[in-house]
Amino acid sequence: MTPADLLLLFAAGIISGMLNAVAGGGSFISFPALLFAGVPPISANATNTFAACSGYLSGTWAFRHDLKAHQKQLPLYIVISLTGGVTGAWLLLQTPQEHFSAAIPWLLLFASTLFICGNQLNKLLRHFSPADKPRHWLAAACSGAVLLGVCIYGGFFNAGLGIIALSYLVLTGHTDINAMNGIKLLVSSCVSLIAIAIFIADGAIVWYEGGVLLTGSLLGGYSAATVSRRIPQQRIRQLIIITSLSITAYFFADHYQLWPISG
Asked: Domain span at residue 98?
């Protein structure tokens, strides 16, 4: 680990922390930074989950009052989130390194598409929301199965989890954006915490690099309040979209060798 790598991770942590606090999408910076610093793909994914978890926890605490209105449903959300997080983390650790490397461009493309189309997707899902319809047991079971799938994805690959979770909440009839953000962050926290426990047991987290990234992320999140007042959120979203698509294109080009090989 060179000083340049440490500087890269620290800067990536600051930027990702700011993005997560303001508009989301910080994993598009932090995860590739770990790869560029030489961390193996699966360890990079596990370490990125560790670094992002503090933001989920602090966000959940910030929305704790909004969660009170849904306290009867929260135990079920927590159980499903923990189950999905364990499953996703286990699947990640069973995946050969080369197979996960091959999946990275497609996972980034999926997460980028979700980030770009998230608002439009949520508006579309509102038309199918059962908010004014009685909940049948079959609909409740399907809803739980969808949430489990969301959480399995989150345990396997953390990027884009918040966007998928928010879309799920829209589909199931939630309308209070503050409560939705609180539930989203609670789900993300539970998925990440249990996944991190699995990663620790397997030795998948690289603590030194992760600590540098986490420190930068905490500083970035703390300073985001000042930045968010100066830069319109739409501009930040545009920057994230350009960055995520550029990084995704790089990994596609790198994996499929779409550029001339020198030497």
From this structure: 17-255
DSSP state for residue 38 in the 8-state scheme? T
Residue 184 covered by a domain: yes
Look-up: residue for tokens 């699995």?
198
Tens digit of each residue's pLDDT (9 = 90 or more) over 161-207: 877 887 788 777 777 777 888 888 899 899 999 999 999 999 999 99
Q: What is the DSSP letter of 133?
A: S
Distance, CA of 213 to CA of 30 (rounded, Å): 7
Query: What's this model's pTM, rounded to 2 decimal places?
Result: 0.81
* 3-state secondary structure at position 39: coil
State both tokens at 33: 């930074």
Number of structural domains the chain divides into:
1
Contact 102, 235 (CB under 8 A): no
| C-beta separation of 162 from 183 below 8 A | no
DSSP type of residue 108: H
- Residues 2-54 pLDDT 10s: 888 899 999 998 888 877 766 667 888 889 999 999 999 999 999 999 988 88
Quote the strand ranges of the chain, DSSP E.
Answer: none
**Whole-number Å distance between alpha carbons of 85 and 79:** 10
**Is residue 217 a part of any domain in this protein?**
yes
Distance CA 192, CA 166 (A): 16
pLDDT category at 228 given cuts 50, 70, 90 is low
Residue 143 is encoded by which pair of tokens? 């809803």
* Residue 69 falls inside a structural domain: yes
pLDDT attached to residue 207: 94
47 falls within a domain:
yes
* Gap between the Cα atoms of 2 and 8, Å rounded: 10
Contact indicator for 56, 185 with CB cutoff of 8 Å = yes
d(CA 81, CA 75): 10
